[in-house]
Amino acid sequence: MKKTLVAALVASAVTAGTLTAPAAEAVEPSTTATATPVTTTANPEQNPAIEEEYTPLEIALGLAGAIAVYGAIAAGTCWAMKQGFIPNPAPKYIPCHAKPKPAPKKPAPKKPAPKTAPKPTPKPAPKPAPKPAPRPAPAPAPKPVQRPVPVPAPAPSRAYPNCRAVWNDLGRPIRSNDPGYGSHLDRDGDGIGCEKRPK
């Protein structure tokens, strides 16, 4: 529908442009104010506007444009009638009728429910067996008495007189957090003493 409408508008614009352009050229206002009346003669040399006629192509385009415009107007009106925006003034002669509203669906007739056989009465459930008497809870076991863990006695502080004694006891250089470390074993003061094995 949009394409038809756009095509109709384009055709009408083209038609209006081709039909009015020569008329606009023919009527030119005079720039001089003269009191003499303008007279037209049948001589084409004096008045070139009389000589100009429309070509068959221009006439065909004009007619096609007019038909397209009227067709677009008729199509738009018919569409509006079908949508129910405007009433159809002559439904006998204009075949653009509004869409009929769908009739409400009638519910299907309900079938009578089939008669069911009477349900048998359920047998009474057997009585549950009596639950056994609960056993007495066992007496809680006495909590073990926690004895204090003996703390090991601190190792006696060692004192190494020289690096040979360190290497003989540890087999490696001594660090500042090792027992027996002393500044006399660490000459460069970097926290690691006796870095080289003595000979």
Automatic annotation (TrEMBL):
<dbReference type="Pfam" id="PF05901">
    <property type="entry name" value="Excalibur"/>
</dbReference>
<keyword id="KW-0732">Signal</keyword>
<feature type="compositionally biased region" description="Low complexity">
    <location>
        <begin position="25"/>
        <end position="42"/>
    </location>
</feature>
<feature type="compositionally biased region" description="Basic residues">
    <location>
        <begin position="98"/>
        <end position="113"/>
    </location>
</feature>
<feature type="compositionally biased region" description="Basic and acidic residues">
    <location>
        <begin position="184"/>
        <end position="199"/>
    </location>
</feature>
<dbReference type="InterPro" id="IPR008613">
    <property type="entry name" value="Excalibur_Ca-bd_domain"/>
</dbReference>
<feature type="compositionally biased region" description="Pro residues">
    <location>
        <begin position="115"/>
        <end position="155"/>
    </location>
</feature>
<feature type="region of interest" description="Disordered">
    <location>
        <begin position="25"/>
        <end position="48"/>
    </location>
</feature>
<feature type="domain" description="Excalibur calcium-binding">
    <location>
        <begin position="159"/>
        <end position="195"/>
    </location>
</feature>
<protein>
    <submittedName>
        <fullName>Excalibur calcium-binding domain-containing protein</fullName>
    </submittedName>
</protein>
<feature type="region of interest" description="Disordered">
    <location>
        <begin position="96"/>
        <end position="199"/>
    </location>
</feature>
<feature type="signal peptide">
    <location>
        <begin position="1"/>
        <end position="23"/>
    </location>
</feature>
